[in-house]
Amino acid sequence: MTSGTVTVLAAASLTDVIDVLAERFEDANADVDVVASYGGSSALAEQIVSGAPVDVFFSANEATMQSVVDAGLAADPEVLVTNTLQIAVPAGNPAGITGLADFARPELTIALCDTAVPCGAAAQSLLDLAGVQAQPDTLEEDVRAALTKVSLGEADAALVYVTDVVAAGSAVEGIDVPEAQQVINNYPVALLAEAPNPDAGQAFIDYLRSDEARQVFEHAGFAAP
Amino acid sequence: MQASRPRERRQPVILALGVIGLALLVLPLLGLILRAPWGQLGELFVRQEVLQALGLSLLTATLSTGLSLILGIPLAVLLSHSVHWKVLPRRLLRAAITIPLVLPPVVGGIALLLLLGRRGILGQWLTQVGITIPFTTGAVVLAQTFVAMPFLVFAVEGALRSADRRSELAAASLGASPWQIFRLVTVPLTAPGIAAGAVLCFARALGEFGATITFAGSFPGVTRTLPIASYLAMNSDPDTAIALALVLLAVSLGVLLALRDRWLPGTA
């Protein structure tokens, strides 16, 4: 029997899907309250290492999760879903972006994530792979900040996750990048060693593994590992 | 004599709470100083990202303080005249100047984006004539001015209210024009208030984060000021983040101490 509050820190790109899954989990477990907070994975990992009372950490890449494991605060993280990058442009694609090569055009306003956060590290790998020297105008602190600049029409294009393009709805259009299949972001989840409520935390992770949760993830654009 | 007794008895409590209050303000900064990687500090300070962020922060905070002086002193005069207005417009004016002080700066950044962004109410016209503000150093200055100018306005307004208005009346009776009165009498009379306001404004502009990252973005050398560089470095390299925070702390402290001593001898 699980009860109480489950505190979850999850990568910004998981915002919508965890909101949905948390609600369904709460519906099935009336005594459990899921409190989720979202942000750049690295900032979240820093909070955990600094002693934030958290039960579950869901990171957007393995390197960031590893920093928490190395601090002795988590063991055996499990990759639950994967995500790939896509070009996001404002609805109607006013700048006429066709591919990654446009990211080198200095006259366009380009938003990328900073390489300190997973989406920025992935974007850099992808640009390197495609041999594109990007000319970004801003290096955002998390993927949703980059997406917002596009959905407001302030940036002509950004590299974000496929799932962010899905989440942004009609404000944003996605353009596939052929090389993206070679830069796959793994999302590991782990129960934290100092979890205030480990039973409920584990129950939530078990729910994230379920078929029902899998469908929600896939609907949002995530893939299975 | 008897009247002073209860006050004496209350003093230890006041003293204790005051000290706790001070500790709450000072201890976190002390923690920052103690945790600082002093051994590598010299090497961290001369790193390009630190110097670049420092230079940009000093430049933009100076420009936004200048802009706040040009626009804020006249606004303070307007505010001090508003005592003669009807209640509603007077309160609206004061509220409008107070809002940026209490608003989360991120909200200020969103508001600036919706006004001056490429698809903003004014921004779409500016874009047509070739002016794009977001993601430029100019956007940083605007964001900082939005957040910091009210500090200057209220400091100057306070000085105007306590200043002796008879000199202005005398100047007027001697035939001085309103502009001459403003320039030759009002401004010198309120100089200490203006200086104090400018210092507060500069310090607030230097620390501005939320409105800047929302409206201006974050790019090294263009829009990534010290607070933003420090926040980002916290993600990947906490030692650099602490070094950047120390620079910010030292500059703020230096500005507050040096300028108050020089311009406001009475309060030193």
Q: Brief overview, please?
A:
With 225 residues, chain A is an alpha/beta fold. Chain A contains 8 helices and 10 strands.
What does this structure look like?
The complex is a heterodimer of chains A (225) and B (268). Chain A has helices at 15-28, 41-49, 62-70, 118-130, 143-151, 162-168, 198-209, 211-219, and strands at residues 4-11, 32-39, 56-58, 78-83, 85-90, 110-113, 138-140, 157-161, 172-175, 185-191. Chain A is α/β, with parallel strands linked by helices. Chain A has 2 domains: 4-82 and 186-219, 3-Layer(aba) Sandwich (D-Maltodextrin-Binding Protein, domain 2), CATH 3.40.190; 85-182, D-Maltodextrin-Binding Protein, domain 2, CATH 3.40.190. The mean pLDDT of chain A is 92. Chain B is mainly alpha-helical and 268 residues long. Chain B folds into 2 domains: 1-35; 43-267, MetI-like fold, CATH 1.10.3720. Chain B contains 13 helices and no strands. Chain B has helices at 5-35, 38-45, 48-81, 87-102, 105-116, 123-128, 137-162, 166-173, 178-189, 191-207, 210-215, 226-236, 238-263. Chain B is globular, with a radius of gyration of 22 Å. The two termini of chain B are 33 Å apart. Chain A binds chain B through residues 40, 42-43, 46, 109, 111, 114, 116-117, 136-141, 145, 149, 152-154, and chain B through 113, 117-119, 132, 134-135, 213, 216-220, 222-224, 231-238. Chain A: GO terms for molecular function: metal ion binding; molybdate ion binding. Chain A: InterPro entries: ModA (IPR005950), ModA/WtpA (IPR050682). Chain A: Keywords: Metal-binding, Molybdenum, Signal. Chain A: It comes from Dietzia cinnamea.
